[in-house]
Amino acid sequence: MKLDPKQTAFGRHETFPLRYAWLTKGFEALQTLPNIFSQPDRAMVLLGVGRNMVSAIQYWLQAARLIEFADGQGAPTELGELLLGDHGDPYLEDEATLWILHWLIASNAIQATGFFWFFNHFAMARFIEPEVRASLTDFAARELHIERSQTTIKSDVSTLLRMYAPAPGKDEDHLDTPMAQLQLIEIDGKARSYRSPRAVRPFLPPIALHFALAQRFADEPEQPALPVRLVLYGGDERAAPGAAFRLSEEGLMSCLAQVMARWPNHYDLRDTAGVHQIYRGERFADPLAILRAHYVQAAA
């Protein structure tokens, strides 16, 4: 999904980080009642949360591309059915599911612009919250040619940090977030500073990189290859798997080697005119087929 200055979204999560049960509860409720999110009072009862949380649940389902809306009616996407349907992983028990959900949010430049920016453009390995706010404000003005209020910018940055690096000793709003497990952002000491360095990340499930690469290729079906540098760092206003997963070059190549060993002939590494590139292999599969096969195998 390419960054488009005409289609951006900041602060639509009502300052609520994603919580464990929200995606499943919201997804199941929508299947029962397609217009559930157009009836906030009924949704509050059915989901057991407050009005603002209803909006947040709807937002995170959309940001993760699990549901879509038309004329007030919601429906699961095919991707949503694969991830949270009966044959998927509705209770987020497969560690790969969280990494895939992270990728879906971090690559969603349209509905989660601040999150997309942080994981694909913000390169500081150590930082404090005001530095992130200032950098996002500058990016919005310089690259997107829009101005967002400091309240909105602060809301996006604060929510992102609480979602990926919840502070110990806080209430459930800060602790009940699945994304903290990924360790992509960590609190660094007692001065409320943070760290989000690139690393090898040997615990990254290869299926997550496989899916992200397949989506990246699907965004440009006419392109037979992607430069490794582009996959690692980005630079074409699309999400970069290496950046979103905070991988070092060694980490990317190590995980890519696992992907190529487990799914032979899906990708090919070659040097073309001195540029190290990842090519589509002869057995290259589309992203949905990759997920479908993964969850079928996981259930076997």
Structural class: mainly alpha
> What's the arrangement of strands in the largest beta sheet?
3-5-4
- C-alpha geometry: globular
Helix content: 40-55%
Arithmetic mean pLDDT? 93
What string gives the helices and strands in order?
HHHEEHHHEHHHEEHEHHHEEH
Tally of helical segments: 14
Q: How many beta-strand runs?
A: 8
Distance between the termini: 32 Å
Rg (CA only)? 19 Å
| Major sheet attributes | 3 strands, antiparallel
As a percent range, the share of strand residues is 5-15%
Outline:
With 300 residues, the protein is mostly helical. It contains 14 helices and eight strands. It starts with 21 loop residues before the first helix and ends with a helix.
Description:
- There is one protein chain.
- The protein has 14 helices and eight strands.
- The chain has helices spanning 22-32, 40-47, 51-63, 78-84, 95-106, 113-120, 129-142, 150-164, 172-175, 206-219, 228-233, 241-244, 249-262, 287-299; strands at 67-70, 73-76, 126-128, 186-188, 193-195, 225-227, 267-272, 275-280.
- Helix 10 (206-219) packs antiparallel against helix 14.
- The radius of gyration is 19 Å and the shape is globular.
- The chain starts with 21 loop residues before the first helix and ends with a helix.
